[in-house]
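chain below, 392 aa
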Amino acid sequence: MFFISLTILLFFLYALLFLYYSNAWKKIPEYHPSANMHTQTMVSVIISARNEEERIGKCLESLALQNYPPECFEVIVINDFSEDNTSQVVRSCSADFPQLRLIELSDFVRKEDIWSYKKKAIETGISQAKGTLIITTDADCVMPRNWISTIAAFRNSKEAGMIAAPVALTIPSGSKSSKLPFFIFQIIDFMTMQGITGAALHKRFHYMANGANFAYTKKLFHDIEGYKEADDIPSGDDMMLIEKAGRADQDKIYFLKSAEAIVCTPAEPTLKSFFHQRVRWASKSSKYQDYKIKTVLALVYLANAWLVIVALSAFVVPGLTLLLLAIFVIKVLAELLLIIPVSRFFNQTKLLWWFVPLQPFHILYILFAGWFGAFGSYRWKGRRVTKSGRMP
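prediction:
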């Protein structure tokens, strides 16, 4: 009886959490910049790039087509010790893109002196930036034409110090149809995280961001001393920074809910690369200082683990089958409360037919990614990252 009561309590809390996120997401007003709103804010787009010769060209092409005064923005690519032709691709693009600058990280630091390459690259880019507003993105991203103008206008209208903006996964071009369920799995999972990010920021509940679409003023970055105290963590250029900003001045942090600001990036092409990515994301959780996000992560992990425990127990005690069905339905309905409105924003409701069939895989992914994030290692951009944080 105690086991059943504990199970019901756990999934009641899980449902309440997603109901809270759902209501918060719906209350975020969609931002539509006025057609006659013009801003002269100087913007610096910062891209840390490593081994991106095949993808950075499309990213820079979308930035060259931005509907923003050319004299009011620059794009700084920091080459993070690439072992391919990333630098050459950037240089070839700069011939027709005068706002583009290439910085070699090797000109500023030695490999052996760094633990967090991406943070050091962004920090170096900011030190060379002319803009008062910094926007970070990734080399594999593509932006809509009004991306910079929307972020700059939103920043000015809210007097925001930091902005987390939406990111959408896309199916990689040239992919085999047999891998479609794998890509849809990633898209739905990532949309859910985007919904939680927006909802949590809107309510000032906890702080999340994705460095593929992340903006902040240079002043705020310097006021909170950038990545100081987090430069021994290989990743976390987004989460660690927004959490730090939240402790300093939470009223200046916003989520930009605007279709004009959605950045698109391809889903991971293989199961191996996907798993390493998610383990990398999970590995940061032990470094968070905000007890609220730690509590949320613990609840989500425990609910998924408990569902597996109940499923295994049902083989021994058939009477638990009804309980298993009940908590599975509660989990699915609770998550749909959030994912349905979020999918409408991203125009991806057609993918939700896959939501229930993919649930078993999602549950196992949560368990394994969480476990290896806490106790394992992963590879990132050709570097192996151990639990100690070292990147050999």
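Residues 388-392 have pLDDT under 50 and may be disordered. The longest helix spans residues 2-27.
thats it, cya
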